[in-house]
Request: fold
Amino acid sequence: MELWKDKIRNIDPYVPGEQPDGKDIIKLNTNESPYPPSPMVKKAIAEYDWEKLRLYPSFVCRGVKSALMDIYDVKEDEIFLGNGSDEVLALGFMTFFNSDKPIIFPDITYSFYDVWCELYSIPYKKAALDNSFCIVKEDYFGENGGVVIANPNAPTGIYMALDDIEDIIKHNRDSIVIIDEAYIDFGGISAAELIHKYDNLAVVQTYSKSRALAGIRVGYAMANSKLIQAMEAVKNSFNSYTLDSLSQAAAEAAARDTEYFNRCRSNIISTREWTVNELSRLGFDTLPSSANFIFTTNKNIDAKGLFEYLRSKNIIVRYFNKPRIDQYLRITIGTREQMEVLIKAIGGY
Reply:
């Protein structure tokens, strides 16, 4: 008998989007940037002193933090850096959610939240989005062990106004509120400006989307220094060196190239609007998106069937076989040329 089986933790893990091989595939399933990183990133990596790889990286990450300080008007001790925003969020869950009361997040949102709750034995409950797939802020006003909101939400792409976010924070002064802003740069105002007003707020962002650096895994949280200090203590309890030195060099360079960042972001937003208009012409209803993806449906077309058809055409989008959203596809915004191929393929379905 394999008695050790009873001692192993069993959990249903998060399932990431497919990462296929092949150069001919149009990959619109994981919300990556269709554009390469800033040329300043290429320069920083090319000029990196490879001999330094024998040394442990800086756990202070002062260069990256300095660049972020200039962007968000925050202090060094108000920034926490980690190996992608997934790690930052996971550490946030571990640090802030230690109550017997359940934390609250939407029923349709980033599916890693349930996984972390199960992994860390955090009680939770889900608040249903309304019929328009919007967050109902009043659902978060009751007693709880914490609040997590993705804004813009995923996979819907819908943005919640900053006034409403602030209202949720005000109603939860005894709990920590985490605002996950992975997609905020594509439409909306960051809640980072509120961290000096509310000591129970942590805002999490990533380099993976608007900075085109999904491959190096850099994420960060912004909060008051006491919350950051608590996260650092948890991180340093199992790994002090979460961000390697080469990633730090690339991340600092990306944050400093504001011109390139704005140009790529603008291109993605304009391509998003073009795509929504073209899909509308084909009979699709698309939720209002403030992200680098769209969530769309057509009452006359089965979503799974279209998903499989597009895959046969080497176009990969994301399909979720879940209640309420199983007739929607989430489509990452690629280049204009990629989206033209997509629209042509859908038109021929």
